[in-house]
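Run log // design_07
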């Protein structure tokens, strides 16, 4: 098998071959940290976490860089609203972002460079563009000269002659062409600013990613990712900036995830129909949110609703219960995974895992990969029903599950839970009630534990409990 990735640049699936065998350089555009993460922001975060996980499982060392835009117009306005500084706004929402990241079961990036810590890089990049004739100063601002870069529009397939100027691009009399975009913005009175050869100011949005990607990953990276909305103008401008400077492709593979809709309508802050991740996490665990995101192919649109999240939660509970039961059966074997794996179980597990990888290698087809996980659940439940199953069978089941779940991360690593004294007392009382065939009291205790967030499971191996 060979991993195939749909490359936005070529509009086709291509075999993935990193520039350096066993090492992958990946850049994903990060957040502008002026507010809490909404569910639309969470999609690329989860998608590219999954991509990174799978690349690592294939044996690659992944250098994963995602930036923080910690100064721009939005942060300046937010600082005014909060009567604080831009730096304080950034720190507040970077902390919130990291908390959401952990709550989504997402591993931290290798590096999170910040705009405010990269000014020397950015200014140097703009100076080089100016020296090559791709940038020009006008009224204290610096613009990119799009007419000099012949391939401008190649990523998004935009026809510049047909762009609706004033709608798709900003009209400004200081520009040579309406489609030229800003690299450096002159500071307004009282605004946060940095010194530069063109006067006090701050970077435009597009230039920061070009400068950071080049600094931390090199002239050409393996994978550049982000949401579909970033194809134009952001990623198009990145291409123009970097490739004008280096004469090399910015990225060999471009990946873009689809939009999230709310009630069949594109999610938008202007429409006021966004859901904050911090609010969703209060109601749903990371596994349910990840399941919802990954149960649709990353390039397709995704419709968010409370009903879809509840359905995802139930599906993850089914998977987690099977995993927990298999682990429990294995723990009951005093001598561990003794015996040999049943050949039929071994063959079925091999087929399930092979199918999982085949789906993942087809442009990260996570919906079908999840189907393979449910094939595992069916096999696990069938094996659990067999009292003659050997401990080695359950060990093999867990190993196969771990291989798949390390990529999708639908359930957390199982940890031994410790019950409170009250929970332990109620469980012991219920055991005694059942021994005395006091079924009504047994049911009362079950309900009382349920209100405490404890689920009971009566199994052939005895009563077990877990938290909701």
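design_07 sequence
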């Amino acid at each position: 098998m060979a991993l195939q990735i749909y490359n936005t640049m070529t509009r086709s699936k291509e075999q993935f071959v990193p520039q350096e065998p066993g090492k992958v350089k990946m850049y994903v555009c990060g957040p502008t940290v002026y507010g809490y993460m909404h569910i639309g922001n969470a999609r690329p975060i989860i998608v590219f976490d999954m991509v990174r996980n799978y690349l690592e499982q294939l044996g690659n060392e992944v250098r994963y860089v995602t930036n923080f835009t910690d100064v721009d117009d939005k942060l300046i306005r937010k600082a005014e609203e909060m009567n604080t500084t831009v730096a304080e706004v950034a720190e507040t929402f970077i902390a919130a972002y990291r908390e959401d990241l952990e709550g989504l079961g997402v591993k931290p990036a290798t590096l999170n460079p910040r705009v405010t810590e990269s000014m020397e890089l950015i200014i140097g990049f703009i100076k080089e563009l100016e020296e090559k004739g791709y940038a020009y100063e006008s009224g204290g601002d610096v613009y990119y000269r799009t007419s000099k870069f012949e391939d401008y529009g190649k990523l998004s397939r935009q026809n510049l002659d047909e762009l609706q100027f004033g709608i798709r691009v900003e009209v400004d009399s200081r520009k040579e062409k309406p489609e030229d975009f800003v690299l450096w913005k002159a500071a307004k009175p009282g605004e946060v600013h940095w010194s530069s050869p063109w006067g006090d100011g701050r970077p435009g949005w597009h230039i920061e990613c070009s400068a950071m990607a080049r600094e931390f990953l090199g002239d050409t990276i393996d994978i550049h990712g982000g949401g579909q909305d970033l194809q134009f103008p952001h990623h198009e401008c990145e291409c123009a900036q970097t490739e004008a400077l280096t004469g090399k492709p910015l990225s060999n593979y471009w990946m873009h995830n689809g939009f999230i809709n709310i009630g069949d309508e594109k999610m938008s802050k202007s429409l006021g129909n966004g859901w904050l991740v911090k609010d969703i996490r209060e109601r749903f665990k990371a596994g349910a949110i990840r399941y919802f995101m990954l149960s649709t192919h990353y390039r397709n649109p995704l419709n968010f609703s409370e009903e879809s999240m509840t359905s995802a939660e139930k599906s993850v509970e089914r998977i987690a219960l099977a995993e927990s039961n298999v682990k429990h059966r294995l723990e009951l074997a005093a001598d561990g995974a003794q015996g040999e794996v049943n050949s039929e179980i071994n063959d079925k597990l091999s087929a399930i895992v092979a199918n999982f990888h085949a789906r993942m290698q087809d442009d990260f087809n996570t919906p079908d990969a999840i189907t393979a996980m449910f094939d595992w659940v069916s096999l696990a439940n069938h094996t659990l029903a067999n009292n003659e199953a050997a401990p080695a069978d359950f060990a093999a089941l867990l190993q196969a599950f771990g291989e798949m779940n390390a990529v999708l991360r639908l359930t957390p690593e199982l940890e031994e839970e410790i019950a409170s004294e009250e929970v332990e007392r109620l469980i012991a009382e219920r055991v005694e009630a059942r021994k005395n065939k006091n079924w009504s009291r047994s049911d009362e205790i079950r309900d009382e534990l349920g209100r405490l967030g404890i689920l009971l499971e009566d199994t052939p191996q005895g009563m077990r409990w877990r938290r909701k």
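The longest strand covers residues 221-227.
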